[in-house]
Amino acid sequence: MPPSKKPEVSRVSMASEQSPFAQVGSLSELPQEAMPKADAASPTPRPEDEELTNLNWLHESRNLLTSFGDPVLRSVSPVLELDRDHGGPPSPSPPPATSDPPYDLKHNPNCKPPYSFSCLIFMAIEDSPSKRLPVKDIYNWILHHFPYFTNAPTGWKNSVRHNLSLNKCFKKVDKDRSQSVGKGSLWCIEGEYRHNLIQALKKTPFHPHAQVLATPPVSLQAFQSMSSPPLWPVSPFFRRNGGVLLQVPQGVIQNGARILSQEVFPGIRPLPIIPIGSRSAAVRSVLAGCRRRSESDPSGDPPLGSDPKEDHTYSTGNGQSSSLHSSGGGASREAGDVPGDGEDDDRCRDRREPRDAAAPTPDAAPPQAQQHKRRQHWTTKAKLRVSGDSLPLKKRRTQKPPESDDEEMKEAAGSLLHLAGVRACLNNITNRTAKGQKEQKDTLKN
DNA sequence: AGGTCCTTAAACATAG
DNA sequence: ACTATGTTTAAGGACC
């Protein structure tokens, strides 16, 4: 494809001067161990690992959401559709964007968010009760929580879409028929990569709760006493579903919804606690089931990350980590983690190509002239992919069989995983507390 | 210096 | 026809 002519001027120093996201909170900073590989090649995570993961996630989600629940933020949020619908506070037009740091969400809500788009999208999706959002609602969430974007050039929406499309962490799920009003699909977090996103958030230097993250509360009480994150009852999707995911076995998801709305967040009723081991087993079982299904069921999404080498994200590794990553010899890095780079392409293929198009013909792609090594690589791979299919991309996508209950179940499993994590964490906290009390008693006795 | 990550812009296709 | 959504390519800056 001929390079699109672009006004050189429009791009000059763009990233450095306009981008609110320049390399802050980069997913590339993710430690290698933070990359879960839910494939056959990696051993089943030990309960302790899971525990740690869950703990992190719990704090993380809570903290990150908490940071956006700031009333100051709310009060300056633009008047959104959601607010209008629900009598949300009418908002004054936000002050003009100020030049950045110190990053202070609380006192300068209009400052540039230090989060990457990946993180923003992640937070938006995670903040929704059903853990999936249409693009429009992602926009809304971002606008709602980061007034900066109300005055930002509209390009950010493009970036959001670009991220959704390109980033492995995000998965498109078709709306079921009852919900298929309006365009587009719902976007959710690819379970395997949620961890990465959490880590990325954690790495954000300006994270308002960095201290909290550094010193997580040691007790359930302390944990629960933390300030309250915003729920998002105004989400149209949430409203549609009455706050509960529909189309899935009621007990499972309704319990899940209960956990989300009452357990992680304030005023939450505790759930029955189950041993971590059994939970892990259950989670693994669910995971395995999903994986099995997605591998064996040709109507389902192609398996994601079934090959460790393909199990990469838009942003799961920087130079260092990628070298750690490369266990498979010299070629491993060449399938880099950059957007559009080889592995990302693999991921694109994973996500977008139907199984019948899974055999792109390498020869079909003529080698590109070497301008940029990386771009050349990417372009070549992209051509491989495209050439392997006879259908236009969109057609290939839409040729997918209609979303089945299987897909719903997969999603439910994803929610379950998340919730299981929450539960395990609480379980752990409670156990620790109980254990500590018992030990204290014993000590006193002696 | 080169590689990588991320953002931004733009072109294009498709769906509603 | 128009707009929103989704995909892809390209380029530049920051960072390591």
UniProtKB/TrEMBL annotation:
Biased composition (Basic and acidic residues): 346-356
SMART domains for the chain: FH
One GO MF term: DNA-binding transcription factor activity
Source organism (scientific name): Aldrovandia affinis
Listed SUPFAM superfamilies: Winged helix' DNA-binding domain (SSF46785)
Low complexity compositional bias, start-end: 297-306, 315-326
InterPro entries linked to this entry: FH_FOXN3 (IPR047404), Fork_head_dom (IPR001766), FOXN2/3-like (IPR047119), TF_fork_head_CS_1 (IPR018122), TF_fork_head_CS_2 (IPR030456), WH-like_DNA-bd_sf (IPR036388), WH_DNA-bd_sf (IPR036390)
Subcellular compartments: Nucleus
Compositionally biased residues, Basic residues: 371-384
UniProt keyword list: DNA-binding, Nucleus, Transcription, Transcription regulation
UniProt region (Disordered), positions on chain: 1-55, 81-107, 289-415
Broad class of the protein's primary localization: nucleus
GO terms for cellular component: nucleus
Domain Fork-head as annotated: residue spans: 112-199
Biased composition (Pro residues): 89-99
Signal peptide positions on this chain: none
Record keyword Zinc present: no
Tagged with keyword Transferase: no
DNA-binding segment(s): 112-199
Name this protein carries in UniProt: Forkhead box protein N3
The protein's role, per its UniProt record: Acts as a transcriptional repressor. May be involved in DNA damage-inducible cell cycle arrests (checkpoints).
